[in-house]
Design brief:
Layout: E1 2-4, H1 15-20, H2 43-56, E2 80-85, H3 91-101, E3 107-111, H4 112-122, H5 124-131, E4 136-140, H6 147-162, E5 166-171, H7 189-196, E6 199-204, H8 223-236, E7 238-243, H9 244-251, H10 259-262, E8 268-274, H11 280-295, E9 300-304, H12 313-316, H13 321-335
Parallel strand pairs: 1-7, 2-5, 2-6, 3-4, 4-5, 7-8, 8-9
Helix pairs in contact: 2-3, 4-5, 5-6, 6-7, 11-13
Length: 337
């Protein structure tokens, strides 16, 4: 029987360990285009799959012209593809399929926050040199939440594109709308537009598969049910058990790039006495934590306030609405798994 407390952990990660972690999350380590199941009700899913298969294929050499004919010209393609769609329509599956299908010697897959954290750990120029010469960079959950991220990522991607790196990204916000509602995006339109010009935007419509089989509310356990869930979890492995506000406070002392190490080895996450969050910074850190738990497919068991209502109505009406809704979708999935 093993119980750990996440609030007692102080994980560390070196730059090298952060780079080594830039691979698809466990549930997508074997993702392929063949295993992607497009919904026939949304033709854009099949269209996106076919376009990405072409994007991931080796580029054929252009046909040479004969004595009296010119070589056939093909329109120049953009160095990046950008998957724009709602939650749970298979964007990350397709992104991981690109990663696995592209015959590249050096390729990387990470969430947006992992790349910005790497810049913070190694410095901008060292990060550029690290990725220079790579054939593919996959960026999941692309978001520009502040001016600093805008400048760093637009500069980084711009330098890598000129050196021949191909880009593939997912988000629920089109590239020319990134930053809207979060900061003075109009002050950075030139940088945002320059980044947008590197991508061919691919729209994917659909219904969130995580909510097709649930009623949209994260279940809440009473104390007896919670203790039983913890006992069942520890009978087979390791579970964490933390008071919700204590864990949220602890997240402020751990860099988001280390959240994946915070939950290392944990098979069930237990949260006692959940309350609705009223601090935006704390809420955004919790979103990053939920993303890492979802990547690792770790079930969550909780008491108190329903985790599907952990973000206030005011937050859901603000500039981070899409980010909070994605987290709610994932919380419902993890608490019902």
């Amino acid at each position: 029987m093993t119980i750990v407390h996440l609030a007692d952990r102080a994980p560390q990660m070196t730059g090298a360990e952060m780079v080594a972690a830039l691979v698809p999350p466990p549930q997508f380590e074997s993702a392929t285009f063949e295993s992607y199941r497009p919904d026939a009700a949304y033709p854009s899913q099949q269209g996106a799959k076919e376009l990405l298969e072409t994007f991931s294929s080796p580029v054929a050499a252009p046909a040479k012209g004969g004595l009296f004919r010119r070589a056939k010209r093909t329109p120049p393609s953009k160095p990046g593809v950008y998957l724009d769609g709602g939650f749970g329509v298979g964007k990350t599956h397709l992104l991981a399929s690109v990663f696995h299908a592209m015959p590249a010697r050096r390729k990387y897959f990470g969430s947006f926050i992992e790349y910005t954290a790497l810049v913070g750990a190694l410095g901008y120029q060292n990060t550029v040199e690290l990725f220079r010469g790579s054939q593919l960079l996959c960026i999941d959950e692309f978001e520009l939440d502040d001016p600093g991220d805008t400048m760093v990522m637009t500069r980084l991607l711009g330098e890598l594109v000129t050196s021949g790196t191909k880009l593939a990204a997912t988000s629920n916000t089109p590239p020319n709308a990134l930053g809207e509602g979060r900061f003075a995006a109009q002050d950075f339109l030139r940088e945002i537009q320059a980044m947008s010009d590197s991508f061919q935007t691919v729209r994917i419509d659909g219904t969130d598969y995580r909510q097709r089989a649930v009623d949209g509310t994260a279940p809440v356990l009473d104390e007896v049910g919670y203790e039983k869930a913890m006992a069942d979890a520890t009978a087979a492995g390791t579970a964490s058990d933390d008071e919700f506000t204590t864990l949220v406070a602890h997240l402020a002392r751990v860099h988001p790039s280390r959240y994946i190490r915070l939950i290392d080895g944990v098979e069930v996450i237990g949260l006692r006495e959940v309350v609705q969050l009223d601090d935006q910074s704390a809420a955004l850190r919790f979103v990053a934590f939920v993303d890492r738990a979802y990547d690792a497919q770790i079930p969550i068991r909780a008491t108190g306030h329903p985790l599907s209502d952990v973000f206030s109505a005011e937050m859901l009406a603000g500039g981070y609405r899409k980010k909070y809704l994605r987290a709610v979708s994932r919380l419902i999935a993890l608490t019902t798994s």
